[in-house]
Amino acid sequence: MSLSHSDWLWGSMLANGLAHRSSDRAVSEGIPSGEGIPSANGLAHRSSDRAASDNRAVSEGIPSGDALANRSPGLPTGSFYSSGRVVRLAELATSSILGGKLEALRGRTVLIATRDPLAGAIALIELDGVAKRLVLCPPDLDPAYFPGVIKTAGAVAWVRDGATPEENAAGLEICVTALPGLSPASVTRRQSHETEWVLLTSGTTGAPKLVLHTLRTLTNIIVQQQVTQPAVPRVWSTFYDIRRYGGLQIFLRAAVRGGSLLLAAPNESITDFLARAAAVGITHISGTPSHWRRALMSGAAATINPAYVRLSGEIADQGILDNLKAAYPRASVAHAFASTEAGVAFEVGDGLAGFPATLLDTPGPVELKICGGTLHIRSGGNALRYLGDQVAPIPRTEDGFVDTGDRVELREGRYYFMGRAGGVINVGGLKVHPEEVEAVINANPWVRMSLVKARRSPITGAVVTAEVVLDDDAPAIGERPSADALTRAIIDDCRRVLPPHKVPVMVRIVPSLEVSAAGKLVRPSA
After folding, report:
1. Fold equal for 95-214 and 423-509
2. Using a CB cutoff of 8 Å and minimum separation of 24, what contacts does 353-360 make?
3. Residue 2: is its pLDDT beyond 80?
4. Which residue has the higher pLDDT, 508 or 72?
5. Residue 425 gets which letter from DSSP?
6. Where are the domains of the chain?
7. Are 131 and 110 spatial neighbours (Cβ–Cβ below 8 Å)?
8. Fold held by 95-214
9. Beta strands in 402-516 (DSSP E)
10. DSSP string of 214-241?
């Protein structure tokens, strides 16, 4: 497949429309289930009855039967879904949500600040190749940070929706309010710029950093996979917001590779989101381990029957991998490592936590090495730089590797993530990575998720404590022990496998743990 359109999103979508023309029969017979991993599962929700199959395909935005034969060649395939609305991507050839303002934004630096993820997704498609720079603002961005983001990015225009306060971007020259849906328009889609994409880091303290990418860096791995994998559409979804790196990767997989995408609404409950995902027959779905733990706790995990389950954004311990495989036995369960600054590094699909040491010696588009105990990545997916004069540069070695700051430990030919270099607990001069202790606690069959943190000590400076959420739907392993018995068992588990300074001095059972808008556990040191 030609990669000539990889610097322009709409061009990539058109190229995939042509590619999918040759694979229409495969689409009508079912979608292969794995993300590059073959499986016999296919599209789990598709009926064996031909008429029912065609009706479901139309409702999902995936052409089948006569619709396939009549489709115009070269137009993008698939549909994007939000709560109660659907946009068929082929309609963008003759429609827009920008109300005739597309050309007014050409060559400009534009903030995308819509609360509605569907409006944001369509704006990104319309403006890549048109705008000089796109700044992706998550819906939970503190209004106090807007002036700094605008100044640092050099923004002169923004696209908002009715739910975004106008005062958030006071002083910008051009304001475009996205329409609630596509409207017929005479649009000439042409590329005039290699648009820069600016993502905001998801740190929970201080102003976010602005990380500069291009479509080429963001799709580095996606385009490489496109060469070797069949041009068959998938139905994607993600717990992430697409304005964050993890969600943006799923958005780009759907757009660039000709699939469909179900978007999560802000503050949507897990139960409602999974019900919508089941209704459109999602085949591929991603989220953080915390997202997935909450899904398993919700009682609604069985609503969906995906062919591919992906974890990223946090350490995937063995407990969550095993629990997801038990919940979705026919699915390929994989965990990936990526960061906004370093890009996508790898995906592991062998069902085990950590990653094989052989990945460090494997030639390819992504190179890995361990320096000073942390993972370093060099690839075409690395971010270009941070924006702003007052920000230190992205940490790189002299030979161009980005230091992720994620500490790893080699054990029996496999590297295991220990936690962030800056997130350790200092117990009398000895280091404790909270995630290492959490992995032990989460292996207890009665535990769904846990948070390890420090408590001040006059003797050692700090000691380790833990908060634990129990699993109300644990496997049938007998009657659940009392709270006191469980906390003692958890501490005993830790004593068996951890050095004494890493063992929690106290374990407290709590009803829930706070998860950030980025889908990660909120840690006291964050």
Report:
1. no
2. 353/315, 353/316, 353/317, 353/318, 353/321, 353/416, 353/439, 354/408, 354/411, 354/414, 354/415, 354/416, 354/417, 355/414, 355/415, 356/413, 356/414, 356/415, 357/410, 357/413, 357/414, 357/415, 358/413
3. no
4. 508
5. E
6. 9-87+229-378+400-405, 95-214, 423-509
7. yes
8. Rossmann fold (3.40.50)
9. 402-411, 414-420, 425-427, 430-432, 447-457, 461-470, 506-509
10. EHHHHTHHHHHHHHHS-----EEEESS-
Instruction: Look at residue 70 and tell me whether its pLDDT is greater than 50.
Output: no
Amino acid at 386: Y
Task: Report how far residue 64's alpha carbon sits from residue 81's, in angstroms, rounded to the nearest whole number.
Answer: 18
Give me the residue label for tokens 């068992």. Answer: 489
Q: Which CATH fold would you assign to the domain 9-87+229-378+400-405? A: Rossmann fold (3.40.50)
Q: How many CB atoms lie within 10 A of CB 7?
A: 18
Residue closest to 379 by CA, chosen among 348, 409, 353, 344: 344
At which residue do the structure tokens 């605008």 appear?
Answer: 150
* Planar angle of CA 296, 252, 146, nearest 5 degrees: 85
Total Cβ atoms within 10 A of residue 187? 16
- Give the C-alpha distances (Å, rounded to integers) separating 140 from 97, 134, 307: 22, 18, 31
Tell the CATH topology of 423-509: GMP Synthetase; Chain A, domain 3 (3.30.300)
What mean pLDDT is reported for the chain?
85
**Is residue 85 within 8 Å of 131, Cβ to Cβ?**
no
Q: Give percent of the chain above pLDDT 70.
A: 84
pLDDT on residue 6: 53
What pTM was computed for the model? Answer: 0.84
- Kindly list the distances between the CA atom of residue 459 and the CA atoms of 376, 433, 453, 505, in Å, as whole numbers in the listed order: 36, 20, 17, 14
In three state form, how does the secondary structure of 37-98 look? CCCCCCCCCCCCCHHHHHHHHHHHCCCCCHHHHHCCCCCCCCEEEECCEEEEHHHHHCEECC
* Number of other CB atoms surrounding residue 226 within 10 Å: 22
Q: Which residues lie below 8 Å from residue 311, measured CB to CB, with a gap of 6+?
A: 286, 287, 288, 289, 292, 320, 321, 324, 333, 334, 335, 336
